[in-house]
Amino acid sequence: MMNKLRATEARRRAALSGIADRWAALPAWQRLIGVTAFIAILYYLPLLGVPGLTWLRTDSIDGGNSWAGVLFTCAIYVLVAIGLNVVVGLAGLLDLGYIGFFAIGAYSVALFGSTNSPVVKWMQRTFELEPTWAVAWAICIPLAIALSLTSGVILGWPTLRLRGDYLAIVTLGFGEIIRIVARNLTGVTNGAAGISAIPGPEGAPSADNQIFGLQDLKPWYWLAITVVLLMVFAVRRLENSRVGRSWLAIREDEDAAAVMGVNGFKFKLWAFAIGAALGGLSGFLFASRNAFIDPSQFNATLSILFVAMVVVGGSGNMVGVAFGAVLLAYLPERFRFVSDYRWVAFGFAMVVVMVLRPQGLIPSRRRARELQDRAKEAKVSV
Amino acid sequence: MSETTSTESREPVIPSQPGPRRLLLEIDQVVLRFGGVVALNEVSFQIHEGEILGLIGPNGAGKTTCFNVMTGVFKPTSGQVRFAGARVSGRKPPEISRMGISRTFQNIRLFPEMTALENVMVGTDSRHKTSVVGALFRLYRVRPKPEELPQVTSEAGLLRTWQQVRRSCAQIFGLSRHILEERAAEKKSLELLRFVGIQGRANEVARNLSYGDQRRLEIARALATEPKLICLDEPAAGFNPAEKEQLLKLIRQIRDRGHTVLLIEHDMRLVMGVTDRVVVLEFGTKIAEGSPDEVSRDPRVIAAYLGESVDAA
Ligand SMILES: Nc1ncnc2c1ncn2[C@@H]1O[C@H](COP(=O)(O)OP(=O)(O)OP(=O)(O)O)[C@@H](O)[C@H]1O
Ligand SMILES: [Mg+2]
Question: Locate the ABC transporter domain: which residues (chain B) (predicted)?
Fold first, then answer.
């Protein structure tokens, strides 16, 4: 049984790598057309009405969630996965507290953009502003990025000198600390009561909003997917540059890299900061769309889910981690029976994937080889 | 030790351009202790620009440790290393690499999952100015040299117009420094791969290269950092005589390219054939220094090293 599974698996893997090879061999203009078509499909997705494919929609089942809303969540998770992939997949730093940066991004827009936040109320009192005043949504974007990036640097500065497991423990603690601070610092964050009226592109949530309303979620998805595409573009630029090479070199052999002139600490810190900024940005989008956040939304299980998206999808490969994120966000929504046993099914799926495909579903080629070789070594040493 | 060396089998030494040379590296009374083990005991020697210096000694003599001190992997317990007049000891490896010292490793340490070309490009990166912001936004523009401009290759039609537009844009706005650096790095890396003789394996991941090619790749990667001094740690380990002959030529060529070479090697034939001067270590202490001829006649060296290897054979 297991052998048969492995055999089909091997065949499928061969087919997959065939696709990747053929894709890379295509002329540039054909790839451009392919990418353009794919992007067009992404934008069309919330309108999906092609007969025969409508079953994909989450609202095609009883009590299913808004299709565009689910797509929005998928997009947010893809953004998270891309950011975490920079840290875990490229630079090889195990970060188990990624939710912390997500929360910081979310709280940035909540604390500064919502009229209900104690911070804005304090500003209104101190500077004698109108009670409707709050920091504009557009200004909250750089604010969220800056705050999460800074927190990434502050966390990374002392901890990136640690290696391996120690870093994982420290980051796990960081994620929890952020949540606990958000819950206990009632005077600033409203504590467990949370913050409502978080603004979107059109300002505070209200029935008058024309585009980014609470009912029609398509524009939210389009906004999120635009951000995702921009970030994919940016991270690709880094991956295919000196920076990406340095990350790989650090992951492979940090000491040799140092002797070859790679400033390991600097590039690890950059990876951490970039990952943090992307996490913050996704938290920002999440909070804007949700209009309400409270600390319980940022618990450690979500951190683990984030790492799972990266590992299941294929650590180190952007396409892979994006696929993993979509899978973990979409499946429980479409197949509701899964969602009831979500964590059981999830744990089971993880085990199956890790047994049959330890490199992830769409692995980076490098990682795939690394793990295959490790498997070989293990056999030899037995 | 498998290599038996006798004075008869030695090739004649052609001393390369004599005359006073500039002092490049100075190791001054360096002591390094690992707990109770004294790995280096008041070792002092100097390397002059343009020479090939051999560093020999029996196993465990402290040769690799000496490299580790020079490249910042270990900090000496006492004593100093100076390179081109500047202090080396106490600095971090990346900084020392930029000062102009590079090395290969006795136990090969490539980046196994990166291609040969990428391995070498990591070396070239140590001279690059672009970092995260530059690679991301590419706003820093430089005026390209004529040969760096985009070429107009198409005969006619839309493609030609497009190429002309790109060329004009590059002339007016310049090209991003990042892109120029990236192109130059690739070109230089390919050239270095050709130099060490493995250009055909450029896109192979390092782990899949043969043992000898991995050693050659390490040399190419070390050269890519544009070192003034390149330290080779047993580059001939595991080589057959034909390969050793090639390596001998390669080392001379490296010197002719303007690098100073420090060579650790157990094969005495190779050491005698290529070095201008030899320093001998035993148990962390320098026991002799001089021309290969002088050193191989030194009774202490014969007792410590050659004698031992003859006995062993
Ligand atoms: N990191 C370390 N910790 C403790 N002792 C070390 C360390 N590195 C080297 N030594 C010791 O220092 C001494 C010199 O070792 P080194 O590797 O420099 O020898 P070597 O001359 O390169 O020998 P070989 O010809 O075998 O490569 C040895 O006794 C070794 O055990
Ligand atoms: Mg050694």
Answer: 25-308
